[in-house]
Predict the 3D structure of the following.
Amino acid sequence: MVLFDRPLERASSDCFSAYGGAVDQRSEGAIHAARAGAVAALVRSMTMRLDDFPHTGSMRYSPDVERIPAAAISTRAADELAARLARGESVRLALQLGCRWHPDATSHNVIGELRGSELPDEIVVVGGHLDAWDVGQGAHDDGAGCVHALEAVRLIRARGLRPRRTIRVVFFMNEENGTRGAAGYFDAHRGELERHVLALESDAGGFTPRGFSTDAGPEALAALEEIAALLEPASAASVRPGWGGVDIAPLARAGVPLVGFRPDDERYFDVHHSDRDVLEAVHPRELALGAGAIAGLLYVVADLPDALPRNPGDAR
Amino acid sequence: MVLFDRPLERASSDCFSAYGGAVDQRSEGAIHAARAGAVAALVRSMTMRLDDFPHTGSMRYSPDVERIPAAAISTRAADELAARLARGESVRLALQLGCRWHPDATSHNVIGELRGSELPDEIVVVGGHLDAWDVGQGAHDDGAGCVHALEAVRLIRARGLRPRRTIRVVFFMNEENGTRGAAGYFDAHRGELERHVLALESDAGGFTPRGFSTDAGPEALAALEEIAALLEPASAASVRPGWGGVDIAPLARAGVPLVGFRPDDERYFDVHHSDRDVLEAVHPRELALGAGAIAGLLYVVADLPDALPRNPGDAR
C-alpha cells in the first residue's frame, strides 16, 4: 500500500494512522535532508516491530534540491545508531545502494468477470494489486488482496450463485510505484463508469476481518451497514466511513462508492514492504474469513433489486 | 483452557465452538474405544492447523471400562494414518507413552491487590491461570491471561488512579487438571463473596481484543455494554452474553457476574496445548491491547458510584 498525500490518515485503524503520520520521514526525508546539506538520508523503518529487517517503500525528490542517496534501516539498527550518537560517539557510516531507476516497461492489469444474470452491464469491481516491492514476496501486500477478490468470486460460484450484476475482479498493476494500473483502468473503462455500482479494494493484509470502510453517502452507507450485519460470522459486521483504496480511488471521480476491506492490522506493519512479507506470514483461516466476508458483501450488492445510491462524483 | 461439560459451546466464537464440538473425542475417546474392545485410543489433535505437533489435553476414564492407553497425534500424522487405512493397507502402530499419574502436591493461587480508595472491602477479581500443560510454555494458555491481569492493574497504577473498590489479581492454580485453584479460591473467600462485584477471566489467548462475554443479567449487561463502548480504541467495544471462565465459574454460585475476555481466536488452536504455545507466538502489541481493554473495563467497574447489579446466584 502506498501513501500519496497521506490518504491513510482517513483510515480508522491505529496502526495505519501511526504509519500515515510517520511515513513522510521516508517519502520526503531525502528532500529535507538535502536542504539541510546532508550527503545522504537514512530513515528508521516504518514498523512497530523491533527487528533486523529494513522496510522499503516509495520516496521522492524535489526538483529544487540535490537527489541524495536515501535508505531505510531496520529498527534495531536505527536504535543502535541513535544510541551511539546520543553517547556522543563519532559514527562513520558507509552506504552501498544497488537500486536504480529503470525505464518504463509495459505491464497489465489482470481482469476476470462473473457475468451478471440480469444486469450484466452493471458492474461491481473487487480487487487488489498484483505488483509488490522487491523485498519479500508481497504475500500480505497485496497477494492477500488478490486472493480475497478471486476467492470471493469462486465462493459465490461454488454456491451455484449468479448475482444480477457483473462482479469484475481486477488485479491492478503498479500500485506501489505510481498507480498506473489504477489510472489505466479508469481510462480504459471511462465509458462504463456510470454503470459501476461499487468498487471494493483489499489492500490492508490478509488478517482476520474487522469490517469495511467506505466513502459512500449516508443512504448507501446505511445499506452497506445492513448488508455487513449479515457478515457477523466472518467478524466483518462493521462499516465505517473512511478510505476505500489507492487503486479504486480514481473511480470516486465518477461517483462510484468505494469500499475498503478492513482486517485486523496489528501485524501488518511487522511484514509490510520487508523480507518478512512471505506466504508463511499469512494465516489460512484468517485469509479465508476475509474472502468469505468480501464474498458476502459483493454478492448482496451485486444482487440488489435497485443499485446502491451513487456518490455525487466530480465534474470531469 | 479445559472443557468440562463443554462450557465453551456457549462461547460465541467459531473456533471455540468447533473445539467444544470435537473435544469429546479426546476427553472421552478412550472410554468409547475400550467399550468397543480397543487396546488403545488415538485422537487427531484438536487444532485447525495441519502440522506435525500433537496437542495434548485432559481426558478421562469411566469406572466401568478398562483404562486403555490414549494419545493425541498430530493432524498430519492422523491424515496419513487415515489415508493408509482408507487405502486398505495393513497398519501396525506402536505406542510408547511416558505419561503417569503423579500423587497430588500442594500448590497455590497467587494473589495481589490494588486496594480500593473508598470501598476496599468490595472486590473486583481479575485473573488467568498459572499452570500450563507440560508441552510448550503455556504462553497463550494462560501466560497471556496472567499478564493481562497484572498489566491491567499496572496500567491503572501508572496513571495514578485508584478506584473506589479493590481490584484483586488472582493467578489461579491447577486450571488444566481439576480447577482446584478455582475451588480453593471459592472456599477460602466464601465469607466475602457477597462483596465480589465482578470477576473477569482472560483464558482465550493474548490476541487482538474483540470484546467480552458475560453471564450478567440484563441490567448489568447494559452497564457493561456502556463501559465497553469506551474501549473502541482497544478494539474491545463488544459485550455478548456468554461464558466467563473456568476459574471464576464457581463464583457464579454466589451471584457474582462473570466476564470473559474475548480476543481474536483464529490462531489460538494453532498453539493450544502444544509445543507451539511459546512466547514467540505472542504478539506484543496484541497482548498490550488486551491489557489495555481489561484495564479500562476493570477501572470503570471498580470505580462506579453504585456497584453493578448482581446475578441471583444459587442457594448454597
Observations:
- The longest strand of chain B covers residues 119-129.
- The interface with chain A takes residues 14-15, 48, 208, 210, 233, 235, 264, 266-267, 270, 283, 285-286, 289 of chain B (CB under 8 Å).
- The mean pLDDT of chain B is 93.
